[in-house]
Design brief:
Number of domains: 1
Structural class: alpha/beta
Number of strands: 10
Helix content: 25-40%
Strand order of the largest sheet: 1-2-5-6-7-8-9-10
Amino acid sequence: MSDGSSIEWTDATWNPVRGCTKISPGCKHCYAETFAERFRGVPGHPYEQGFDLRLVPDKLLDPVGWSRSRRIFVNSMSDLFQEQVPESYVQQVFEVMATADWHIYQVLTKRARRLRDLTAQMPSRLVHRKHVWLGVSVEDRKYGLPRIDALREAQAKVRFLSVEPLLQDLGTVDLRGIDWVIVGGESGPRARRMEEAWVLSLRDQCRDAGVPFFFKQWGGVLKARTGRLLQGRTYDEYPEIVAAAAPSAAERARRTVALRRLLGQDAIAAE
């Protein structure tokens, strides 16, 4: 788990899964893969296996130990809803999120249909939570837009879109049932172009629908230089949901013991 994330729309990251596979054009220049592969073969490093898929059960309990409320990006270095991640493990992640309920969790996937299917199978006490935000990536019309329909069918209290990297004009987007939209351009040496008109169209559609709009970045080769101003201002809007107050240290310890019992000692490494 990493506090003080450089990702503009979150406070921290939590990675009980590492590694992923490419499934659409938005994956082409994956920042997580580029980072992870730098450390392939480095003994003892968290990414010694590069970007190969790996479950990390000893990270499951990390959020329970954080006393201050945070917005937490879940699996910034992976995708929880990959087919190779067992259903039982996905549910364990949701059990932790339900227990450490003083944080807000931002769960983002490109596997929207599996998100829809698994949330339908899980107990409502795990998925119908205002502090658990479920989102899908939307990079283009062919691959991205259909994910929105699957997200709308998923069991969730808060649904969001990460329109990054935005690779083309999306046209009219159906924002029914969507609570938040993030938009951003691709960054890095091979970054693909994003047009201002595409961004403005999404901003205006969010305004019309009453959906909070967050503009993350223009991106490009030097994203610090291009910045994140859109027509002279920043857009840092969020759903109007406030995290619960963090419990006492004694209560967090009690919840930790209960989670260990629920998930089983085989699933969680001893502290």
